[in-house]
Amino acid sequence: MPPRYVVQVQVAVLGAVPPLVAAALARDLARSVGVPRPHRRVAAAAAGCGLAVEGLYLWRTTTVNAEVQGLAFVALLALALARALSTGRRAWWGVALALAALLPFTHNLSAVIGGLVLATFLALAVLRTPRLSGPPPPSSSGSGPTRSATTRSRGSPRSAGSRTPRDSRSPGGSSSSRSPSG
């Protein structure tokens, strides 16, 4: 069998990988959002078939080119990163690392796309992780002094005996015009 026939079969098999991965990712995304099972199947089929018959992808995967293998690696890298981030298993991180290491040897454009996929997934992981932060912001439930209480007399804070709003409401706390004794 001549090598070109082997390569054409290899290209056809490798060209089928990214649509399958797109279907798996669409199904997982639909599951995480809470879409019912029949709709998840439709979403997965639409993603896989949509990519499989999309013009530019179809043109790039029907010709015998090194980029076909790179596109398959990019799709598998996306799947491995999605699984690694969702499960946290080291095995998926190892698969993602191996695929990322192979990308520069396949095709330069596939390596760039793989780098963008990697950056996107890592940015999503950073945004989803809880961060340590300072103390929580003060609540507006009236537990602390208000702005009007701290700036009563010509903008100087806590002047005139350091009255708080609670002191002015208490009986006998201050002489105001609203007082019944007044």
Question: Would you spell out the secondary-structure blueprint of this structure?
Answer:
Layout: H1 3-33, H2 37-52, H3 55-62, H4 66-87, H5 90-106, H6 108-128, H7 147-150, H8 165-169
Helix pairs in contact: 1-2, 1-4, 4-5, 4-6, 5-6
Provide a short characterization of the protein structure:
This protein has 182 residues and is an all-alpha fold. 68% of the residues lie in helices and 0% in strands.
Your description of this structure?
The chain is mainly alpha-helical and 182 residues long. It has a domain at 3-128. It has helices at 3-33, 37-52, 55-62, 66-87, 90-106, 108-128, 147-150, 165-169. Helix 1 (3-33) packs antiparallel against helix 2 (37-52). The longest helix has 31 residues, at 3-33. The chain is globular and about 75 Å long.
Instruction: Sketch the topology as an H/E string, one letter per element.
Output: HHHHHHHH
Mean pLDDT: 75
Using only C-alpha atoms, the radius of gyration works out to 31 Å
Shape: globular
- List unreliable stretches of 5+ residues: none
SS-derived structural category: mainly alpha
Name the beta content range. under 5%
What is the number of helical segments per DSSP (H or I, 4+ residues)? 8
For the termini, the CA-CA separation is 111 Å
The percent of residues in helical segments reads: 55-70%
Largest sheet: none
* Total beta strands: 0
